[in-house]
Amino acid sequence: MNAVEVSELTVRFDSFTAVDRITFAVGVGEIFGFLGANGAGKTTTIRVLTGLLSPTEGRVRVAGRSFADGARTIKSRVGYMSQRFTLYDDLTVSENLAFTSGLRKIPPAVSAERIQRLLRFVGFNHSPSALVRDLPGGLKQDVSLVAALLHDPDIVFLDEPTAGVSPAARSKFWALIRGLAREGKTIFVTTHHMDEAEECGRIALMRAGRIIALDSPAELKAQSFPDPLLEIEWTAGAPAGWRESLLERGAASVVPYGLHHHVMVNNRAAWDRFVGEHTGRLTVRTIAPSLEDVFIRLVEGADR
Ligand SMILES: Nc1ncnc2c1ncn2[C@@H]1O[C@H](COP(=O)(O)OP(=O)(O)OP(=O)(O)O)[C@@H](O)[C@H]1O
Ligand SMILES: [Mg+2]
Questions:
Q1: Is 304 part of any domain?
Q2: Whose CA is nearest to atom 19 of ligand 1?
Q3: How many domains are contained in the chain?
Q4: Same domain, 118 and 183
Q5: Total-model pTM
Q6: What's the gap in Å between 163 CA and the centre of ligand 1?
Q7: Cα separation of 118 and 120, whole Å?
């Protein structure tokens, strides 16, 4: 059985189409990444999958049910950490978690034990009587995750859970995500960090409301870069107009990358001529494409 099934889902706000006929499924226990530029439609999709928003068209099933006949069951099996920070700043960690337990109708005895277990799980070593306002960003995210897990959901939606936290806190957070997946939970996560996307079993790339690619990171790289990807560096300064000249000849797509450029060769003969014309000024090495290369190529458009 799939944890999530989406068929021809469309969401319109007035005449604006935020999600445009997307179809996909997420298997039980997957870490499924949802990627796309700002405004691509990721949060809107998650709001539909958590029952906060009704589709304009199309069907969704979550935990084997549709919202029409099983909203209560779905909500009991789904956890949601929203993109906006949802804890109360002026309540303590304990008060926030007790409040969420109350909303979730978790009996106090069960909730006390769970809160302790989950705070241990996320490695929370701060005082539970600290005001949330006074916690560093990474710890707030940890407490938000605990709040999303209090009712022991099978499917966890994490909308940019690591936005604005330090690299160390991000990497720790992903260790938690992997731990949840090992327990058999399904993780549906959005991120703008490509190193995090690498951690996903499969990723969907969204652009302007549509899913434009969906596969494992390795497959996406293989499919997006059928030809070798080269990293080039001008060792004695780049000649004026070289990119335009390369693009005009149809030789390659070129993307600036720090001090280098990443080049995908589309026309071997034209590329070889180009390299020949610049012998001694250009170093070229073949590199493995990263997900960032894939993202730039597919989501932001190939030739910049
Ligand atoms: N309630 C709403 N009314 C009108 N437009 C909306 C509403 N919610 C979202 N939108 C629009 O729909 C589009 C998709 O928004 P969404 O929040 O799903 O994007 P996103 O992929 O989550 O982006 P981000 O990476 O910035 O979080 C955006 O253009 C947004 O402005
Ligand atoms: Mg969003």
A1: no
A2: 39
A3: 2
A4: yes
A5: 0.91
A6: 16
A7: 5
